[in-house]
C-alpha cells in the first residue's frame, strides 16, 4: 500500500499522513475502504489527517489514544475524529502499530 503525503506530494512517503486544511473539497475526499480518518495535531494549520487502517484500532497504543480522545473531546465530536497528540508522535504510534500488526507500507 503506497501512502502519499498531501504536504509534499511525493509518492515515496511511508506514513499514511495527509495535511488537513478542513476545506469542503477535502471533506468530500473519499476514504479508502478499511480505513478511518483521524486528525492529529490540531493547532492553527488544522492538523494532519491520518488514514488509519481499521485493523490497527485494536492495537493497545491506538486504543489508548482513542480513550484519551473520548475523555478530552467526548463521543459526539463532529467531522473527523481528533486525536489528542501532536502529528509527529501520532505518525510514530501508527507506524509502530503497523509494524506490530504486520502491515507494511510500500515505498
Any chance you could write out the topology, listing elements then pairs?
Elements: E1 17-19, H1 24-27, E2 35-40, E3 48-53, H2 60-73, E4 81-83, H3 87-101
Parallel strand pairs: 2-4
Antiparallel strand pairs: 1-3, 2-3
Structure description:
A four-stranded mixed sheet has the order 1-3-2-4. Helix content is 31%, strand content 17%. The N and C termini lie close together (8 Å). β2 (35-40) and β3 (48-53) form a beta hairpin. The chain has a domain at 35-101. The chain has 107 residues and is an alpha+beta fold. The radius of gyration is 13 Å and the shape is globular. It holds the Pfam family Auxin_inducible. This is Small auxin up regulated protein. It comes from Digitaria exilis. InterPro entries: SAUR_fam.
